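Do me a favour: review this protein, sequence plus C-alpha cells, and tell me how the chain folds. Record follows.
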Amino acid sequence: MLATVVIIYILYQFNWSGFGEDSNKSVTIKEVINPKDGKFIKLTETTEYFQSGKTFWDWLGLAGTLAIPIVLFQFERREQKRADNQAEAEKQRVEKQAEAEKQKAEKEAELEKAIADNNLREEALEAYINRMSELLLEKNLNVSDPSRGDTAFDVARARTLSVLRRLDKDGERKGSVIQFLIDTELISKLNLSDTNLDGAILTNADLSDAKLIRAKLTSAKLTNAILTNAHLDDAIFDDANINSATLDNASLTRASFMHTNLIQAQISHGQLMYANFAGANLADANLIRANLAGANLAGANLDGANLQRAENISIDQIKSANNWEKAKYDEDFRTKLGFPPEDAK
C-alpha cells in the first residue's frame, strides 16, 4: 500500500503521467458599448479549464489496444498447438491400435496355418499307415524276402520316403513312421537309404540291421536306441543326441557325428573308418575294437572313453581330441602316448 502511494506521489510530479492536474485556458475578446459614453470597448475574458491529461494512461490504453491482437494470436497459437498435439496423439493411438490388430491377425493366421499344416501331416501319416497296412496284408511283406525282388518292397520304400518328405520338420511323426516299420518288422527289410530323418524322435527305437546309408539324422533324438549291425555309411548325425545308444558292429564309414552327444554310447566293433567326430562328446563311450582308421577326433571329448584294442588309431589322431589323457588305452599304446604303466600309478 505504501509503495503504491509513493509511486502515485512520484508520478504526480509529471504531467505526462496523468496524475497531475491539466489546465486549458481560453481567451475571448468581446466588444461591448460603454453605457456611460456609448462607445465600443474591448473586454478580454480568460477561461481556464482544469482536467487530467491522462497522458500515461492514454499510452497504456493504446498499448492494450495493440496487445489484443497479439494476445489473441498467442491464444490461437496455443490452441492450435494443443489441437495439433491432440491430433498427433490420436494418430499415434490409431496407428498403435492398427499395428496391434495387424499383429493379432498375423498371429491368428499363423496359428490357423499351423493347425492346418498339422492336420495335413496327421492325415498324411494316417493315409500312409492305412495304405501300408493294406500292402502288408496283400503281399505279406513282413514274411517275404526282399532279396527276391518283390516290387511291393519298392512300393513300400517309395511310400515311406514320400511321407517322410511331407512330414518335413515334424520329428514326432517321423518317429511314428519308423516305429510303424519296427512294429511291422519291416525296418530291416526296407532299403531306407537317403531317408530324411532330421529331427526324428527315435528314443528307445530298435533299428537293428536297418539300412540307412546316407540317411540324414541331424538333430535326431536316439537316446537308448539300438542300431546294432545297422548300415549307416555316410549317414549324418550332426548335433544328434545318441547318448547311451547301442551301435555295436554298425557300419559307420564316413559317417558324420559333428557336435553329437555320444555319452556312454556302445560302439564296440564299429566300423568308423573316416568318420567325423569333430566336437563330439564321447565321454565314457565304449569304442573297444572299433576301427578308427582316418577318423577325425579333433575337439572330441574322450573323457573316460574306452579305446582299448581300438584299431588303426594314431597318436596324432588321439591328441587332437580333448581330454585324451583321461581315456582308456591298451598298455602298448599308453606307452606311445608317454603314459607310465598302469601298475606304476
Q: What stands out?
A: Residues 192-345 form a domain with the Pectate Lyase C-like fold (CATH 2.160.20). The beta strands are 21-33, 40-52.
